[in-house]
Amino acid sequence: MEKEGFWGQQWQATGAKLPPELNSGSAASDQLPQCFLNLNWKQPMAHDADFESALSSLVSSPCSNPPASADGSSIGELIGRLGGICNSNDISASSPYPSADASCYSTPLNSPPKLNLSVMDHRQQGRGGPPMPVNRVPGPQLGPFSAEPGFEDGAARLSCFAGRSSGSFAGQFGFLDPGNLSEASRSQCPKAGFGSCVGVGQSRSERPAHLEMKMRPKIDGSSTAEESEVGNGPEESSLSDRMTAEASSLRGITDNNSGKWKTATKRKGRRAPLSSSATNPPANMTEEESSDAKRCKTADRKGGAKNEVAKPKTEKNGHPGHREGKDNDHQPPEPPKDYIHVRARRGQATDAHSLAERVRREKISKRMKFLQDLVPGCNKVTGKAVMLDEIINYVQSLQRQIEFLSMKLATLNPQTDVSMENLLRKDIYQSRGPMPQPVFPAEIGTVLSYAHQPQTIALQSIVTSGLEAQFSLNSLQSSLRQSQSLQHATTDAYTDASSQLGGLWEDDLQNVAQTGFGQNHGQTHTGHLKIEL
Amino acid sequence: MISSSSSSSSPSSSSSGSRKKKMKPGLTAQAETKWQTAAQEQVYGRRLLEALRPTGGAPAGPRAVKEAADSALALTARGQSRWSRAILLGRCRPRRKLLLKAGGRIRRGRRQPRSSAPVPLQQVSAELRGKKVRDRLRLLGRLVPGCRKLSASGLLEETADYVAALEMQVKTMRALTEALSAASLSAGATGEPGS
């Protein structure tokens, strides 16, 4: 099957370390454990001896059922759980354990049945006893997973558990919500407090950090960045590095998840810079943050709830370079988020309301800046009120200009049309003969075609009387148009021009009216002019 | 002389259109750039002319001209902005109900819209809670058609788009009137009637 092929391929990639150990079990069993483990821990398995030893212990537990460590048993339980998840549909085992597991898990995974069966068989053989209640806790949580992500998540959780062998499993289980771990895997899982698990896993023991760090790379970059992350793995050899790295990664992950953390407030003073960074989850991994398990939890709680705005101002604190390398890998593939992430600044409130409000405020200020560029003369002005004043004035002036121009157009257009009827009788016959129509540029070609027929005829009568007025009008217009600053100059000029033109138009209109233009129209024009001016 | 003036008018308008092309990043970048292209000017100009042409029969008062110009402008906006939709809806009454049903969010400027304004002005921020700012925002909302009850951010975005559109409208109409008057002038000059 597809899964098997996949696993097999990883199997080969990772190397031969595990298989022999896995093969120690039954023939049927080795398939699943190796596939299972390969799928989840392929990179780390390849590179880390410690991990492999842990893995081997993990693997061996179901196989050999070592009674010695409670961890092993619990881990075995976990493995069984995972197998149960995979198997929920397929297992028809008679044993109570698998059936119990199947009952726990509702959604079927696509993993091949036989592998699961083998696992289940292992479980059965290994356990022999009823599952511990504590082990049941993660069951329901692990249950509703879709095939691969769920599998991985479960595996991730499992690794977390394994890592925390020293810790209390119950507590860990409590933290391991399906959402939490799945969140970690960028590509598929919904946002969740993966950090919580990791935070919980922020344990003192070396192994958990180790495992989790390995896990993280896998989770984050399941497909592409894995190799690079794997490369990073061996770098973190020292425990301290691991701890800090884990902490930072935890932080990063939790930051990804919650998005709202302020790196500053609860910080233990480690990371000075605070960022107002916009974090994308993988990018956030490098976030400096110190690990605060508590913070993880709180952030986790908050994280799920809100929408955040992502601002790509990621600030990478001087975290070790390998983390940044990982970031770079992750940066390009922005996971599709339905939330937007926001990073709270230092010393600012982190509660939901203030964060949302800040987001809104920033949006508004951004738009105000844009308007500032649009409206001339707003650059020197500071303050929202004054700027809004300017904007209002500008909009009003633009609207006034439009009215003015429309009036002018109205005098030019319908004037000719109306007067055409009126004037045709009088003037057309006179001026019809010589009417050369100059060819204007194409841009106003339509205008000309329109203007030629009605206007030229009609305008001639007007022109005779108001020619000078129109000339002055044109000169004014051209001068206005050529002025660089459209707004101020034109407004000033318009106020001047309008007064002049008003007089001119009135003259024109009177003339037109005399020629029979449409006295109502002319009067309305003058009326309008007076109102405007 | 007339031809020179007319020729000067046309290149100047086109050059002014191209002169103002600026690329601004951001959300509302497209608002500005879309209105400043010469292509938009010509589109609007043509629409305006077509709108003005049929008013041959009836005397087109300046109000009608202005309304025609605004409608043409709103058409050119393609209904992407709230104010353009408000203008278009204001013009065609019988279609309003249809558009309301179809658009859903379209509403007239003067009507009481649904309480769909995302955030009332008061709740936005400390500064925006300031009385002056709030009054001015309300004023602005009255100026821009269809933006009476709108949140601050939406209102600002509409205003940006509206301002850009108004600038284009002013430019085009000025060019148009110049061309017309130049045409009339030329016609008048060439065909000097005797009396």
Automatic annotation (TrEMBL), chain A:
Show the SUPFAM superfamilies listed in the entry. Answer: HLH, helix-loop-helix DNA-binding domain (SSF47459)
Q: What is this protein called?
A: BHLH domain-containing protein
Q: Disordered: where is this region?
A: 1-27, 193-338
A GO term from the CC aspect? nucleus
Residue span(s) of domain BHLH: 348-398
Start-end of Basic and acidic residues biased regions: 204-219, 291-338
**Listed GO MF terms:** DNA-binding transcription factor activity; protein dimerization activity
- Give the UniProt keywords, A-Z: Nucleus, Transcription, Transcription regulation
In terms of superkingdom, the source organism counts as Eukaryota
* Keyword Nucleus appears in the UniProt entry: yes
Compositionally biased, Polar residues: which spans? 274-283
Where does the record place it?
A: Nucleus
Q: Which Gene3D superfamilies match?
A: Helix-loop-helix DNA-binding domain
**UniProt organism field:** Ensete ventricosum
**Main localization category:** nucleus
Its family remark reads: Belongs to the bHLH protein family.
TrEMBL record, chain B:
**Segments of skewed composition (Low complexity):** 1-17
Would the keyword Transcription regulation be found if you checked this record's keyword annotation? yes
Q: Which GO terms describe its biological process?
A: regulation of DNA-templated transcription
The record's annotation in SUPFAM superfamilies points to:
HLH, helix-loop-helix DNA-binding domain
Region called Disordered, residue ranges: 1-36
Zinc found in the keyword field: no
Per UniProt, the keywords (alphabetical) are:
Transcription, Transcription regulation
Q: Which GO molecular function, any one, fits this protein according to its record?
A: protein dimerization activity
Q: Which residues form the BHLH domain?
A: 117-166
Classification via PROSITE patterns: BHLH
Q: What family is this protein classified in?
A: Belongs to the bHLH protein family.
What protein does this entry describe?
BHLH domain-containing protein
Give the source species. Answer: Ensete ventricosum
Question: Which taxonomic lineage is given here?
Answer: Eukaryota, Viridiplantae, Streptophyta, Embryophyta, Tracheophyta
